[in-house]
Design brief:
Layout lengths: L13 E5 L2 E5 L12 E4 L2 E11 L5 E9 L2 E7 L12 E10 L2 E10 L5 E15 H5 L9 E2 L3 E3 L3 E6 L4 E4 L4 E9 L4 E12 L21 H16 L1 E4 L2 E7 L11 H10 L6 H12 L19 E2 L4 E3 L4 E3 L2 E2 L5 H14 L4 H6 L1 H14 L43 E2 H20 L5 H19 E4 L2 E4 L2 E2 L5 E2 L5 H5 L7 H11 L32 H14 L2 H17 L30 H14 L1
Antiparallel strand pairs: 1-2, 2-3, 3-4, 4-9, 5-6, 6-7, 7-8, 8-15, 9-14, 10-11, 11-12, 12-15, 13-14, 16-17, 18-21, 19-20, 22-25, 23-24, 25-26
Helix pairs in contact: 2-14, 3-4, 3-5, 3-14, 4-5, 5-7, 5-8, 7-8, 8-9, 12-13, 12-14, 13-14
Length: about 625
Amino acid sequence: MSDSPLQPLLDDAVIVLHAPTQVWSDETGDMGTAPIHGVYHGDVRHVRALSVSVEGTAVETIACSSPAPQRAVFTGVLRGVDDDQPDPKVRLDRERTVRAGGVEERIRISSHRDVPVPIALTVTLAPDFEPLQRVKAGLPDHGAWAWDGERASSDTASFALTAPGAVVAVEEDALAVRWTAVLEPRSTVEFSFALALEDATLVVREPAAAAHATVPAVSDPRLGRWLNRAAGDLAALRLALPAHPDDAFYAAGAPWFFTLFGRDAIWAARLALALDPTIAASTLRVLARLQGTRNDPATAEAPGKIPHELRSGTLSLPNEGVHLPPLYYGTVDATPLWICLLADARDAGMPETEVRELLPNLRAALNWMIDHGDASGSGFIDYVDETGHGLANQGWKDSGDSIQWRDGRLAEGPIALSEVQGYAYEAAVRGADLLDALGEDGSEPLRVWAADLRARFRAAYWVATPEGRYPAIALDAHGAAVDTLTSNIGHLIGTGLLDPDEERTCVALLLGDSMSSGFGIRTLSTGARGFWPLSYHGGSVWAHDTAVAVHGMLRAGFAPEAADVAGELVDAAEGFDFRMPELHAGDARTSGRSPVPYPASCRPQAWSAAAAVICAEALG
């Protein structure tokens, strides 16, 4: 067994959430037996362990359900205080509800016995105040805390505990909350406790207004279940910046990404446009307020650049060699995607006055693409980490081994990703259209730039391998086309960068055996040496990645193919009880088999939930 720290696994844990608060437990409702367990608020785990016990009996769990993202119910029987008949007559129900900044649990004990039953109930919870990044790194330290009789606290975070009728005591580095009662014949007693969580360092908050999404009507009941669950998850993932509570965006996902991620927020809003077009406009404004204004290698900021990630403090992942500043701009694709989302939002009815307000940001983003996006002089938009401790890869496949040759070698940076050129082409053309529609000048140079990019892409990126002819995933530091067949080609479809025959070639490859798992499109072809179905970006299936290809197929006129791929995602969603995780394994589908989980996959994930909306469009 390895002695190295390991990231927690998530696939069998129960989550209840309302951003920026989340609770992870096992199916009994208790916490503490798995590294991920706990009560989190923002980037801090406030409670690492919690258990419910009844004197004289075990609590034997028989059911766990989560009727809404913010609520879960755990049901058990108490046979130690029951009679000697086979039917259980004493049961315990725990109903957990999470709101932004709060957790409440109601515990009901019900008896069908004919005699009184004395009850002594104890809730034991262990305060923690551990940074989320240390939990993710597998390096929890169980920080020091103090108790003043009402509140447990550390330096910057705290929670108040209320438990009507209970006696609270500190015992062995935990809080013991005790009630006693007599359960009369055929009656119920109820106990409750609540945590009010605070963190002075929070940089996000619950939006001022509730979500007002409209779930599309569909005829397929499975798709309907996925849509309803996705809509609930997206509502629970909504956040805002404290200074602008009226502008919501989707947090990237639980547990690690309960904050603003530029790329994730844009794609989630874009894929979910038919569900809630208003969040596209608010997401655009949120990111515009943080748009870069200067060149700063330490944060990867540049004028006009849209940020990658916002945190309350430096994000350090020592086992990955990553140390990111609180506001980090290390993304190569968020800026052109922001322009594409602005065009989508306008097409969906964003008022012209709101579009005009973002005109300076649009010009700045377009200027970044043309003047700053080519960091190395390659002639294409590319990236390189100048600090040595930022993200080595700055597209959506941002793991260290995601850009590799067919023979398994890692590509040398600077890297110019193929799909980013597609985003940039679309952004330049649609940005030019926006300028024309607003009566502004500057559109013609953008169209010239886009046409030149299109011609140079065709000359530089297309490769021929035993799997066929297709666009390479990237150009490396030497301008060589990295020849793996990947899902990145799906992001090119519908951008306008490819001609119809080229798009048809890409669609055929994505639907072929080496790329299609039967439960979605693989990130890496089975024909590549580095393929492994449980690799984060090297053979797994990401719902949003597949949905982006579906989105492109619909725009490019490949409706039957889009419907086929969308159907695969619906089948996968059913295997995950209609809450699509961040990713799942890229094993080939076989008869009667459900998709294999990627055990460290986040859920819910905003862009995975938003994939349901695009699938509804494809299957409509």
